[in-house]
Design goal:
alpha+beta; three-stranded antiparallel beta sheet
């Protein structure tokens, strides 16, 4: 069962992997888009149109806090 990571829109699984709440997208996937391709949150939103911007910004913040 996923647990809260104490940040909105992010859950941790049993192995401690961070996921975007309610999705099958790992936080690291968004971070890779941001770091490798220089994608802005708006560009990431274009790639994942089903995610509201809050579900993009919060996981990126989580990533930067837990690198």
């Amino acid at each position: 069962m996923p647990t809260s990571a104490n940040i909105p829109h992010v859950e941790l699984d049993e192995a401690g992997v961070a996921w975007i709440s309610g999705t099958k997208i790992k936080v690291i996937e968004l971070a890779i888009d941001k770091l490798t391709h220089g994608s802005s949150p708006e560009e990431i939103h274009f790639q994942y149109p089903h995610l509201p911007l809050a579900q993009i910004h919060a996981p990126l913040a989580y990533y930067y806090d837990h690198q």
